[in-house]
Specification:
The protein has 508 residues and is α+β, with helices and mostly antiparallel strands. It has a domain of 309 residues: Orthogonal Bundle (Cytochrome p450), CATH 1.10.630.10. Helices cover 51% and strands 7% of the residues. It is built from 19 helices and eight strands. Helix 2 packs across helix 3, helix 8 runs antiparallel to helix 14 and helix 9 crosses helix 12. The relative contact order is 0.15.
Length: 508
């Protein structure tokens, strides 16, 4: 009997210790809401984020409530720190201590159960493969003339597609997403994704859109409570991610298999295998006798393709989509952009129908300023990260424990009332200097800073500029009668506009 009482006492003591430990706030941890036993702030966070209209808005509300640009909370068992404001946001992005990535169930699920690829890894694997991937992408034309040729080809195809609508009202986002992704796929796999009848490309993009809306940057409930996938696989998004992983894996492996076959055919003919795209480069590195690492394998290749695919499938096309929405709502801006495009494309050193090459982008001052204002005003990635503190450190005078997750509020920088004049007004002129040229601003950082800066920034900037110039040159973007797009975006991993329709009316 005494032994039973002893065991019960030990059990009660353990439960009390666990309870007290779960609500204990680390020493000098950033201010924030109190922790519930074992749950932390998970339920409160989700409830208040829904009420606020998104977690990015909630973080700003908490920053005011707790009078701190650094917020500390606990989601499940994970300590989370949110950095707001230019000074802290810049410090997090540039400090080596914050270059890590969390290792949790959701991020592993994102990469098909592994911790591979580039985006969601850190340490030696990240350094090695990020450098290799960027080197090879530049080799096959990323950021150079080959990429520009692909963009020009896709832009021309998009113009033909829009012309065939004959000014009928359409939702432009799906058309844009397919065109942007095809530019990226040509660099990865050396070919376009066919707009075939079975709708492979359309189906994959639809799954990606559903994924983006269902989850947030924290990964949703699956990050804090992975066991919920067994209880509510649909509600938590587990089945959606599994379906997306299966389809993407099959799609990628089919292309990898085709590349392997072409390499084998070259060997049989005694020819040097091609290195015309990223997949060929990875396969060559895997087969190389000179490699001193075993990290180049098929799984890592699939995950690297996945990282580029995810990065290129939504943010760029959504930025163009928002730009078109603004043009349809603001005829004055559209007319001003058309005047600039027409003046540049009819200048003495260019032909009337010439494509606006990226080398001449600096001549399009107002277009560049307009694009920057779209990115600043809508900030479709209001919260970036997540980062992981690689060791115990300090930030903003507070102690940040090792392995804490760090979230970065870009929205708080792009809408900083102390820096921007009337930040909630859409005004491209804020990026035009006294000489009438487009100017930079240190508070403008849509692609991030430092070594974790977005891998696809060159592709994104080139596609956004080239597609918009071509559209403005050839079409008037008009709202159908009764159509009123909303400036309030839908929350998720990225912010997306609510569906709307426009008409592309051919210019004479």
């Amino acid at each position: 009997m005494s032994a039973l009482i002893f065991l019960v006492t030990i059990l009660i003591g353990f439960v009390i210790y666990s309870l007290l430990n779960s609500i204990r706030r680390p020493h000098n941890f950033p201010p924030g809401p109190g922790f519930l036993p074992w749950l932390g702030n998970t339920l409160q966070f989700r409830r208040e984020a829904r009420a606020a209209g998104g977690q990015h808005i909630l973080f700003e509300q908490w920053a005011k409530r707790y009078q701190s640009p650094l917020i500390g909370l606990k989601l499940g068992q994970d300590y989370v720190v949110v950095a707001l404001g230019h000074e802290l946001v810049r410090e997090v992005q540039l400090q080596e201590v914050f270059e890590g990535r969390p290792d949790n169930f959701f991020l592993r699920l994102r990469t098909m159960g592994t911790r591979k690829g580039i985006t969601c890894t850190d340490g030696q694997l990240w350094y090695e493969h990020r450098n290799f991937a960027m080197k090879q992408m530049r080799h096959v034309g990323y950021g150079r003339s080959q990429m520009e040729q692909q963009i020009e080809h896709e832009a021309e195809e998009l113009m033909q597609q829009l012309a065939r609508t004959e000014a009928a009202p359409i939702e432009p986002v799906n058309w844009l997403a397919q065109s942007v992704l095809n530019v990226l796929w040509c660099l990865i796999a050396g070919e376009r994704i066919s707009r075939n009848e079975d709708g492979t490309l359309r189906r994959l993009l639809e799954l990606m859109n559903r994924r983006s809306k269902l989850f947030d940057i924290c990964g949703g409930l699956l990050t804090q409570f992975p066991w919920l996938r067994h209880v509510a696989p649909n509600y938590t998004g587990y089945n959606l991610i599994r379906q997306l992983n299966t389809e993407l894996h099959g799609f990628f492996m089919e292309s990898i298999k085709e590349h392997r076959q072409r390499i084998e055919e070259c060997k049989k003919r005694g020819e040097q295998p091609p290195e015309s795209d990223l997949i060929f480069a990875y396969l060559q590195e895997m087969n190389s006798q000179r490699q001193d690492t075993d990290s180049f394998n098929e799984t890592q290749l699939v995950m690297t393709i996945l990282d580029f695919f995810i990065a290129g499938s939504q943010t760029t096309s959504n930025t163009i989509n928002l730009a078109l929405m603004v043009l349809a709502m603001r005829k004055d801006l559209q007319d001003q952009l058309y005047d600039e495009v027409a003046a540049n494309l009819h200048s003495a050193d260019s032909k009337t129908d010439s494509f606006p090459h990226l080398s001449r982008r600096e001549s399009f001052y107002y277009m560049e300023a307009f694009i920057m204002e779209v990115q600043r005003f809508f900030h479709i990635t209001p919260i970036t990260g997540p980062r992981r503190a690689l060791w115990n450190t300090k930030l903003g005078g507070f102690d940040i424990p090792r392995n804490a997750t760090i979230l970065i509020s870009l929205r708080s920088v792009h809408l900083d009332e102390q820096h921007w004049s009337d930040p909630h007004e859409f005004r491209p002129q804020r990026f035009i200097d006294a000489d009438g040229k487009c100017c930079k601003d240190e508070y403008f950082m849509p692609f991030g800073l430092g070594r974790r800066r977005c891998l696809g920034d060159a592709l994104a900037r080139a596609c956004i500029f080239s597609f918009l110039v071509r559209i403005v040159q050839q079409f008037r973007v008009v709202l159908p009668e009764g159509e009123t797009p909303s400036l309030i975006l839908q929350p998720g991993i990225t912010l997306t506009p609510k569906p709307y329709k426009v008409q592309f009316v051919k210019r004479n």
